[in-house]
Amino acid sequence: MTSKSSKISKKEPNTKTVCVEAIGSDVSMAAIASLLDTNREALAADFHKTITALEAKIDHLRTTVTDHIQKIAGLESNTNLMDEHVLTLETTCASLADSNAKLMTKITDLESRSHHNNIRIVG
Q1: How far is the CA of 107 from the CAs of 49, 94, 97, 113, in angstroms?
Q2: How far apart are CA 34 and CA 47, in angstroms?
Q3: Residues 6+ apart with CB under 8 A from 39
Q4: Per-residue pLDDT tens over the stretch 5-50
Q5: 38 and 12 Cβ atoms separated by less than 8 Å
């Protein structure tokens, strides 16, 4: 892991040179103010660049979430339509099963009456 001072020196090589020159000579408030201004501007630029990158990522996430919300809404509406169709089909199937049972009972009754009314001539 690199130290904070080495990170600063990698980003701002001029700052370290100015700092060494300021330390070597008489340190004045103007030199310190100049170093602070330089560092502040560098930090502001880094923050701006980082915030811009984060805003781009957040915008991408927002569009992705919006797309997913639309897809989920479409899926929910299709699911509701399919539920209605299934309920209709179940009702139809139940009524057809009831009609089928009644018809089977009627057929059985008619067949037994038909066999009962057959005339046999023996003799």
Answers
A1: 85, 20, 15, 10
A2: 20
A3: 12, 15
A4: 444 444 545 555 555 554 555 678 888 989 999 999 999 999 999 9
A5: yes
